[in-house]
Amino acid sequence: MSLVTYEVDGPVALIGLNRPNKRNATNEALIAELTAAIERAGDEADAGVLFGHGNHFCAGLDLAEALDKYSGKIPPPRKRKGNPWHDCFDLLARGPIPYVAALHGAVVGGGFELASAAHIRVADESAFFALPEGQRGIFVGGGGTVRIQRIIGYSAMADMMLTGRVLDVREAERLQVVRYVVPPGGALEKARELAARIAGNTADTNWKITNVLPRVNDLSHSDGLFMEYLTTQIGRTPEAAARLRQFIEGKAPRLIADSKKD
Ligand code: 1HE
What we know:
By secondary structure, the protein is of the alpha/beta class. The protein is built from eleven helices and nine strands.
């Protein structure tokens, strides 16, 4: 049985972690399948949804496999080949298409790191968030020091890691981890709706949002403005011109608050 499911629905790729009996705990084989699915989605879709099968999004690092490594049962590699977790999550975060993560149940450790690589997070009320590495005697290794810390800040991350505090969905929403909270069982549907909406943008603008914006966030004020200027100079596509013309000719829908839409 596949550890990751892959499906395309129109312009949206649906990627599901599929190891529910182990709460979608992430081992090397799962990371390899996830990487392949993300590569495929980048070719075949305009937006992606990442979700977990079963009652949890992801229980993080496979602790059984980790034990085999820490106890020497799996020997360390003779040559270092980089970090497949980093490569996989970076491909998700800075690949050709945006991702919405649909979260429920456990979003912990490496599962939280994976969710933080998505561009938007939707969670249902069953979701809880933790970084229990301190309790396991290990450290975050899936990019959490960079991504989670940039979302919630050092203070909240240090608290979670030092005390083992488990956040509920509302606490996660206050820390900007989660942008949409939905009733239990509703995360996937909401994520699919958002992904379909995102897929309606031009691929060029979506790429700039997911690849330029986070890099600007890492720059100084003046380098950031320069990068923004350069970005506006590339990709003046016929598709963009057609969209601008549509608005000028009164053919594009006018903007109204989402809360006022039926
Ligand atoms: C696992 C894992 C796992 C469950 N690795 N096997 N992550 C953690 O420290 C989270 C550990 N997991 C839990 O706290 C709980 O399992 C859950 C709250 C997620 C779910 O509880 P529950 O009662 O639904 O399930 P369970 O009975 O605890 O687990 C069901 C099975 O999944 C069981 O195996 P079984 O063979 O006895 O049925 C568990 O052993 C197995 N299982 N979680 C391996 N994580 C890149 S660095 C990132 C570092 C980290 O991610 S640290 C955080 C690790």
